[in-house]
Each structure stands twice: as structure tokens, then as C-alpha cells.
Amino acid sequence: MNQTRTLLFFALMFVAYLLWTEWEKDYVHPPAPPAPTGQTTAGQTGADAAVPGATSPAGVPNDSGAPADGKAELVTLSNDLLRLTIDTRGGSIVRSELLAYPTEPETKKNPTSPPVRLLDDEGAHFFAAQDGLVSSTGAAPDHRALFHAEKTENVLADGQKSVSVDLTWTDPSGVKVTKRYTLKRTDYVVDLDQRIENGSTAVWNGNAYHQLQRVPAEKVNWFKAYTDPAQHSFFGAAWYSPESKFESLPFVDFTKKPLNRQITGGWVSMLQHYFFVAWIPPANEAVTYSSNIVDPNSATPRYLVRAFGPAIQVAPGQAADSIARLYIGPKLQGTLDVIAPGLELTSNYGWFTIIAQPLHWLLSQLHAISGNWGVAIILLVLLIKAALYKLTDAQFRSGARMRKLQPRVAALKERYGDDRVKMQQAMMELYKKEKVNPMAGCLPILITFPIFIGLLRVLSESIELRHAPFFGWIHDLSAPDPFYVLPVLYFIVTLLTQRMMPTAGMDPTQAKMMKVMPLIFGVFFAFFPSGLVLYWTINGATSLLQQWYINRSVDRADIKAKTA
User: Fold this and answer.
1) Strand locations in 39-161, DSSP E?
2) Distance between CA atoms of 203 and 314, rounded to whole angstroms?
């Protein structure tokens, strides 16, 4: 395989990878699943009757049921990173704003931008974190019950380490429940404590549950599906167990592969590009995790994942607490596993995690040194090229020798005409005589391709590159180059690289493909995030320089051998 075929192999593998990620992703609105037949009993609607084969613990209410009477209000809880909006109807978090992450890059022309809203109570973008209690023997407040809050504004003040809000619910029987949400300074974790005080005369038996509900993103046109990096990221549910580690469930599979499993020491989440929300029960509790679809036949079905806790028993005159944590924030590598085991896997690098995670760590270290993510990408390319220099050196030297043999290969082609068998035999004899290995380019590409894909995943998924400026005209490495400078540079580099490759003996169709390849890839990368195009351009430029240097050294060695 000569140098040209190596490049074609690399390109085809890359296109195959893109097609695979397109198939794997779930950023299109999934079709509403068919209504279950013969499985819905009287009074069953919504979450408990939505999906055949999917089960949920008995007693958890349907959203379509009648809520408690009374007027609800919205309560705000804020620290320096999060601003949460809690609805007293159910005591659920219905809105979350990530104060450190603006929606758009902040520039001189656009100095302020609203923060990213992750949880949202708007219909088309509905995404809520809900929790509640259910009881088979007495009263309990579920996520539709009406709570009461003494204060509607709770903000972390200067000098405070944490801020809390209490929501109370009382039943005429004497059972009282207090939900306390707590935010600590510089923390994306919300602590939840549901305190059950049994003032009745009977033993209270029940369970706590925590769930996430959301409406998937709307279907987008083909152009946005290609140009928007978020469309290539995983969008759906994910969970972790110590036995099976990280697992995911795209929205299209909620009907076919419903989750229904008891796990101790796990968590459950909803993922999207850059950000996620996860319920984290206590590590020592055996929790039943399940998935479901609420109102599957509506225009906006809601996809649900739930953590149903173990039994709680509270004697008369006694109290008990059910605690859990809720993470609402970015996929910050290096910090998430401290919160819960396996939480860093939410970055979802897929099969290339074993390569991508070390590359992310190395990129972060280079950023700590350089102070600029674009410079860190350049330094990372140079380090990878240095580490693989010996492999690529053999590849380029083989290509240089084959390039020098082009006149002789052309003569063989003219001699044997269309007799491909004799032509190949003659070429193999020539390569053997001149000690040229046409397969020398295969090993480097087989080793470097997984590294490239791992780095591609890192640059696509790393929250650190979101809105990160480089220099000059590039204000956001996660967005395409606004003036297409990098794609044009990449086109030039690819064109020059192609001209240095041996072409003798090439199939005419392959030769035509090679001529248009620089233009195709230039247009292809025009809509890619500039951070990725920067990587490709620097990688191509360093390979071009290495190939030029090796070509010259081979020429000098040949001249020296002839004059010796």
C-alpha cells in the first residue's frame, strides 16, 4: 500500500466513523411509540401505562392524574454557580440556570448573554427533576402535592458556605414532610433531605423516589444536523452500576429496551452535549431504576427515568430522613468522580474512552501551561507527532523512495499496458530490488487512527472548549471558523501533501479522486468546530514538513551514494 492508498484508507475510515456516530446518536425527535394494546387497565394512564414491558414501582403517581388543590408558587434558590427555580407544586426543580455558562460567546459586540438553562418548564424544552414520597398505608406527598415555603428568594450571601430552602407539607392525620434543598458555594450538587415526621397514631410505611422527565429535542434539518456539533453528541438516559459500569439508553430505545433494575451504589441521569443532570442516591441503598414514556401518543411525549428507594418505616412520634443528591451542571472532567463513582463517564467517549480520557488529561495539563486552549491543541499535536515519529518516519521514507521510482513504474506500465497481473509482478520485483516496502504506510495509520478518533471525541465533548477563544478572529473553538481561514489553510496543506505523494501506477479513478479530495475535505471542514480544524491543519502541516525533510534527506543520501 503506497502513501496515496494510505491517505484514501484514512479518509474512508474517517467517513465510516462519522456515519457510525450519525447512526449512534439520538438527536432527532423519535416517533411516538404505539399505544399499548390490551395492557391498560381502568384508571391507568401516563407513566404507569405508557410502555409495554416497562414496569414501575407500585404507587408512583401518573402526571396525568389530578393534582392537589391550591395555588402554587415559584421559589428561587441560588449559589454562585446555579440559580434554581422550585415549584411548590410537588417541590420539584423546574428550572436551572448555569450562571458560569452563557448561551452565546460574550464579545465586545455581545457583552452579555443569558445563562444556559438546563432544566426548563417550557413545553417544547420541558426538563424537570422531580422527587416525592409514596405510601401504601398512609398519606404521602408525591411530585404533585402542594408544599409551602416561608421564603420565595433564597440567595447565597457573602461569607456563607451554603444556602437552603425548606418546603413543608402536612396531612390532617399528623404526618409532616419537610423537603430541604441545599446548595453549597462553588458546587453544582444539590443536596435533598426529605424529613418525615410521623405525628399520627399509626406506623408510616413508604418509599422515596427521584426522577427526571424531559421532552427530546425537535427534529432538525440535514444542514443543522451536519453543522451543529451538538447533533453528534449522545442525547438520552444513562446510568451507572458497580457491576456493569456505565450504560446508556437513547430515546429511540425507551420502548424496545426499558430499564428495570435494582442497583446499589449507582446513579441515573439525562445527558446532552456538554451538560447533564443526575440523581445520586446514597451508595449503600438498593434502588430500583426504571424508564418509561409519559403520554406517548401526545405531540410532546416525556421520557422518564426513575430511582425508587427502599422501604422507609416511621413509628408514631418518630422521624426519619430520606436523602439524595442531584447534580446539575457541566461535564467537567477531573472533578465528577469525586462526587460519585463513574460520573466522569457521562462525557460518553464511547469505545474510545480508554484513549480519550488520557488525551483529555494531557490537553488540560497543556492548557494549564499555555493558558489558551488553541495553543494547548497545537502543543498536543506536536507531542503526539513526536511520540509517533519513528512510525511515521518509516512511512514517509517508504513514500519518498516510491516517489523516486515513479519514472521506472511509468515505464513498466507502458511496457505491460493493460496486463495488470504482469504489471503487479514487475512492480513487486522492482520494490524488492530497491528494498522498498509498499506496506510501510499501513502500520502507522492503524496505530494513529484510534488516537485521532479519541482526540476527535475529546475536542467534540470537552466543555472547556465551549466558547473558548483562540487568537484574532476565532472567539469560539467549539464553533466553525467565521471567516473559513482554517479550512482554506487545511485545503492548501492537503493539496501540497498530495503533490508530494507518489502517483505512478495509480488507478485512473483513484487518481481523479485524489485530485478532488483536498477540495472535498476543505468544504467538509468549513462547518466543523474550529478547534477540530485547527488540530487537522497543524497535524497536516507538521506531516507535510516531516515528509519534505525526509524527501530531501533521501535525495541527499542517493546523491552521496552515486558520488561515493
Assistant:
1) 74-78, 82-87, 92-102, 115-117, 127-135, 148-149, 153-155
2) 6
Q: How many helices (H) and strands (E) does the chain have?
A: 12, 19
- For residue 272, give the C-alpha cell: 446532552
Give the pLDDT score at 6: 47
What local confidence, expressed as pLDDT, does residue 58 receive? 53
Cell output for 386: 513526536
554 sits in the region (left: phi over 0; alpha: psi -120 to 50; else beta) called alpha
Lowest average pLDDT, out of 32-41, 89-98, 162-171, 485-494, goes to 32-41
Q: Band of the pLDDT at 485, cuts 50, 70, 90?
A: very high
Whether residue 336 contacts residue 357, with contact meaning beta carbons closer than 8 Å, is answered with no
CB 97 within 8 A of CB 275: no
Does the pTM surpass 0.85? The reply is no
| CB-based contacts of 431, cutoff 8 Å, min separation 6 | 402, 405, 437, 438
CA distance 440 to 449: 15
CA-CA distances (angstroms) from residue 379 to 231, 262, 363, 465?
A: 28, 46, 8, 15
What is the radius of gyration, based on Cα positions, of the chain? Answer: 30
Domain residues of the chain, as ranges? 3-18+357-563, 31-348
In the three-class reduction of DSSP (H, G, I as helix; E, B as strand; rest coil), residue 523 is classed as helix
Cell numbers standing for residue 102: 452563557
CA distances from 14 to 159, 242, 452 (A): 52, 34, 9
Write the secondary structure of 341-406 as one string of H (helix), E (strand) and C (coil).
Answer: CCHHHHHCCHHHHHHHHHHHHHHHHHHHHHCCHHHHHHHHHHHHHHHCHHHHHHHHHHHHHHHHCH
Cβ within 8 Å of residue 559, ≥6 positions away? none
Output the nine-digit C-alpha cell for 461.
465533548
For β-strands 267-271 and 236-241, DSSP reports them as antiparallel
**Rounded CA gap, 521 and 14, in Å?**
11
Of 545, 534, 539, the closest CA to residue 496 belongs to 545
- Residue 89 pLDDT class (50, 70, 90 cuts): very high
Summarize the confidence of residues 52-60 as an average pLDDT: 47
Task: For residues 16 and 228, give the distance between their C-alpha atoms in angstroms, rounded to a whole number.
Answer: 19
Q: Grid cell 409532616 — which residue? A: 176
Given strand 275-280, what is the order of strands in its sheet? 148-149, 162-170, 175-184, 189-198, 319-330, 275-280, 267-271, 236-241, 245-250
Nearest to 229, CA basis, from 490, 479, 521, 484: 479
CATH label, 31-348, candidates 2.70.98.90, 3.40.190.10, 3.40.190.80, 2.60.40.1930: 2.70.98.90
User: Do residues 49 and 39 touch, judged by C-beta distance below 8 A?
Assistant: yes
pLDDT, mean of residues 204-222: 88
Q: What is the pLDDT of residue 37?
A: 34
- Other C-beta atoms lying within 10 Å of the C-beta of residue 39: 11
- Which of these, 145, 141, 186, 147, lies nearest to 166 by C-alpha position? 147
Nearest Cα neighbor of 55 from 215, 214, 251, 259 is 259
Q: What is the pLDDT of residue 40?
A: 31
